[in-house]
Request: fold
Amino acid sequence: MRERDPSLNQSSLWRSPAVWVVVAGISVAMHIGKLPPAVPALREELQVSLVQAGFLLSMIQFAGMFLGLMVGLFADVMGLKRCMLTGLMLLSLASALGATSQTPATLLLTRFFEGLGVLLSIMPAPSLLKQLLSGERLAKMLGWWAAYMPIGAASALLAGPWVINAMGWAHWWLILSGVTLLAFYMLYRKVPSGITSQVGGHISLHWGERLKMTLSSKGPWLIAFCFCLYSAQWISVIGFLPTITAEMGISATSSGMITALVAAVNILGNVGSGFFLARSAKKVLATQALEQHLAEQRASLKQQAQVPQENTPFAPTGIGMGAHRRSPFEPQPLERQLEASSGGGAERQATLSAPFVQFTRFVCRPEGMSARLLLIGYLTMAVGGALAFVQVNGVSLPAEWRFVCILLFSCVGGIVPGTLFSLAVKLSPSSECVAITVGWMQQLSSMGQFFGPPLVAWLAVLVGGWQWTWGVTALMAMVGVLMTLKVSLALMDEQR
Reply:
């Protein structure tokens, strides 16, 4: 009896060692989401200012801002599993030391080492999953990996207020240190050692050549800047949301639940982007099949036109006696229909060649789904952020509508990172440069998360409230729209 393909066995996927890679990623993301619920307690106990709180939120991204590309490049040298285990252990120790902090400066230093642990843990994970799984099982697990950040952040935002109210912020740091240590143990036990993407000669270029090829290409820069603009907005709003809701008179527990829900709906955007991109891929394949069929018909018509009609008494298109004249109401031959549909008229061709028209036609086609999703995501973040924070004559929207706007900001904005990860494959200069491209995206994403919260906090202190937060997020979103236009041009060039 023929043995069933394990890729078709749904339960076998969850018995794979790859599950523990995703679980480890979720435990890492909890350290990113553990700080926002603790900001009010830190401001009270350690006298942390609002701007210092902004740097505490962003300091975990400091290492990624400078080392993301290098870690992505040299993860194979260390070994994928070893690199991830090193990061988990460093993160656990830094969190435990952070629980003993007595000053904001000490806590800030431990957050830097937490950020280094996050970077070492996260960068090798996609390559590790690729070595552990293949085909449909890999696609499914990568879908779960794409949601590790909102799952972990939402879990920390939801549980954090309860733990902090009951035991204090220091015990919250210690608990998450233990969670990460447990993830370290399970990863050590369950995932095989010695896994590297260089097995079997997958990488033929020297690391210097791959690095030069990536940084000299336009595509990786474009999607990295897009990721930077998205992450700066999202972490700024989510990071200060507990503080904003606390200032509105909402309890710490309710504030944590609201922030957790806002972070959790971001998962819908990540998953939704994959759904829409998959549908567009099917339409592209169908369109390509239709174009091939039409090309075959054109070739067949040309061959028929070259064959002499020996048995026909009159020439089919001749002029004179016996010539057949078409009625104006008679359908044209297929060849003329194809010619008419493919163009017609110098004026019409000139109109279609205009850059704006080309961009519009591209975005409306299935091939332009990635650009369409980016535009929808950035524009929704701009409108949602504006409606949530703007004040007219000192009056904001009702709290319920502001909450709905922030939900849309996070949910629809979530399609941006999922789309950018898919574009990393398309716009990478080589299949061997995909990991470096993702590392470059992570580095600029960390840069956005590092500068975003302090900028929003500085503006809030300057104007005496959060009413101008929308100006920062809207400006970033509009720049993101302009970058999307550049990405669309790059995709159009790829098709040519």
Summary: Confidence is low (pLDDT under 50) at residues 1-11, 314-325, 327-332. Residues 69 and 477 are 25 Å apart (CA to CA).
